[in-house]
Design a protein that fits this description.
Largest sheet: 8 strands, parallel
Distance between the termini: 56 Å
Number of strands: 10
Number of helices: 11
Radius of gyration: 22 Å
Strand order of the largest sheet: 1-2-4-6-7-8-9-10
Structural class: alpha/beta
Shape: globular
Length: about 375
């Protein structure tokens, strides 16, 4: 019996299969089991999107790396198109209450470095979810330091970093005016980045440094912002949003700084639920007198939100949740947002009219 002819030639099937493989790996694996012909046709797109959760099993990383290297070797041997990882989500948190051994950490870092060496040149979206800031059992697995500094991502368009990843993507900010800053040369440029979502931690919140790394950013979101982040965030915010001087000396001193992100179309800021969750309402944050500093910072944000000459979005803080269930919910939220973006949805860029400082319409930033 003659073989069944293909409905479409391979050069047309490949982009169709890539559009199908945007769920983190399940569809790619399923296509490989459909038939011998489909297995061969889907090889280049099988790793188009990869979801890697290290929360409960660290063996997944080794298995993924082995399978991807095997596919690259097969393509090199047969002359067929090589697989490329275009979209990658990594949940780098450990559910084991005991601390990992030094050998485990070494093997983990070596495997992750090998994976990013193969994937980074071709990535379009990258989502990194560390241990969320909550009281629970999840610990942040240390990621290779080079991932935030010297690793080149020439085609990366969207970068999301949520939770504690132990990485520095920008020079660390100190309160001393004369403290030396790390050279920009230590941080690889991100020439095609347009969507940037980072936490307001020291090592990720220097917006001026981000603007030098990624001058083409059009959408910027900073989450988990508390008073400690003001030394990195507020000077650049004053310059970007035209809010003028504020009651904080650090803001006043830097209010005349040069604007950053010349192409910025949307800026979203989400306060930390632990410190100023009262911005959302009862049941969020601690709300005690001991959080006076954070409450003062929240009032400053609201004042800045009202006075800014440029409209920006003050996102309500998420409900504060203690324990592993709250942490896992945040990890699931990051994964859902990443998948939604791959399917053409807004993900973390969905907004409501009431969040904008001047009532701009539109559900997507």
């Amino acid at each position: 019996m003659p073989p069944t002819p293909r409905i479409l030639p391979p050069e047309l099937m490949l982009p169709i299969l890539e559009l199908a493989c945007i769920d983190g790996g399940y569809t790619g694996s399923s296509l490989a089991l459909t038939s011998h012909e489909m297995r061969e046709l889907s090889r280049p797109s099988r790793f188009h999107s990869v979801q890697l959760s290290l929360t409960f099993s660290r063996t997944k990383l080794a298995l993924l790396l082995r399978a991807f290297e095997a596919q690259l070797a097969y393509s090199a041997a047969t002359g067929s198109p090589a697989p490329r990882i275009r979209h990658l989500h990594v949940a780098a948190a450990c559910a084991n209450p005991s601390r990992p051994s030094s050998n485990e950490v070494r093997d983990y870092k070596e495997q992750l470095e090998a994976l990013f060496t193969l994937a980074a040149p071709h990535l379009h979206t990258l989502s990194l979810a560390g241990a969320p800031a909550a009281v629970g059992s999840l610990r942040a697995w240390p990621l290779p330091a080079a991932l935030g500094t010297t690793t080149a991502f020439p085609h990366l368009r969207e970068l999301t970093v949520v939770g504690e990843t132990k990485l520095s993507f920008t020079p660390r900010i100190t309160r001393r005016d004369d403290a030396p800053a790390a050279a920009d040369a230590e941080f690889a440029p991100l020439p095609r980045l347009t969507h940037l979502h980072v936490p307001g931690y020291n090592g990720t919140a220097d917006l001026a440094a981000w603007a030098r790394r990624a001058p083409g950013v059009t959408h910027l979101r900073v989450s988990e912002v508390d008073r400690s982040a003001s030394y990195a965030l507020c000077p650049a915010m004053c310059a970007m949003l035209g809010a003028g001087p504020s009651s904080f000396a650090d803001w006043r001193r830097n209010a005349g700084a040069a604007p950053v992100f010349a192409h910025l179309r949307a800026f979203l800021l989400q306060p930390s639920a632990r410190g100023i969750g009262w911005l959302r309402g009862p049941g969020c944050g601690f709300g005690s007198d001991s959080m006076g500093i954070e409450r003062e910072f929240g009032e400053e944000l609201q004042d800045m939100h009202a006075r800014a000459s440029r409209s920006w979005c003050l996102v309500p803080s998420r409900p504060y949740s203690r324990g592993p269930n709250g942490q896992e919910y945040i990890l699931d939220e990051v994964l859902r947002a990443w998948r939604e973006r791959l399917e053409g949805g807004p993900g973390f860029w969905k907004t409501e009219t009431s969040w904008w400082s001047r009532g701009e319409e539109g559900r997507v930033a």
